[in-house]
Amino acid sequence: EDQVTQSPEALRLQEGESSSLNCSYTVSGLRGLFWYRQDPGKGPEFLFTLYSAGEEKEKERLKATLTKKESFLHITAPKPEDSATYLCAPVAGGTSYGKLTFGQGTILTVHP
Amino acid sequence: SQTIHQWPATLVQPVGSPLSLECTVEGTSNPNLYWYRQAAGRGLQLLFYSVGIGQISSEVPQNLSASRPQDRQFILSSKKLLLSDSGFYLCAWSQGGDTQYFGPGTRLTVL
To answer: Is A104 on the interface with B (CB under 8 A)?
Structure first.
């Protein structure tokens, strides 16, 4: 059975204090891994897709990396507007519809 | 560009009443469509997916059903709501098995 664990569950940072979020997964035949950002009361917003171990992608203050068992979301010099829940979701190969298995998310709070 | 709509945005329904949530996508053809539920603000659970008109697959047994009467329309229904059906319902679309893009969601409260 596919499993995804995100840690920590919650993270409080001061503005400018860099840190990383972890996503550990067990998925048969990984086809890709997605990162989403979700603000309270809204739908998840797509951030990144990673397809192979060693791949990295960046967007503003965020950088996502992928290994064979984990993905990290690095946040450099965060700002209060980066506060949100960050969700990771690996997708297994072998299907035509892309079955995402979501982690529980990490709630990030950045204080000014 | 593609846009996904969901309505209503919020809904309060009594136990035992019927339910109909609607999702439409603009700017794409033959998308894969998905219904998710998110309880307690965390953790999305896939309920249904559809790869074409009239083609519905269920991921978990439950009190809900889904239909796809048109290419870019996806409907989530129930004949009789339960308290446990409360949650945040999200519709998403993708092209094949690629990136899924989510709608704004519907907050359902069953009293």
So the answer is: yes
Exposed (0-12), middle (13-18) or buried (19+): which is B45, by Cβ within 10 Å? middle
Q: Which of B43, B59, B94 sits opposite A104 (nearest CB)?
A: B43
A12 closest CA partner among A109, A112, A77:
A109
- A49-91 confidence digits (pLDDT tens): 999 999 999 999 999 999 999 999 999 999 999 999 999 999 8
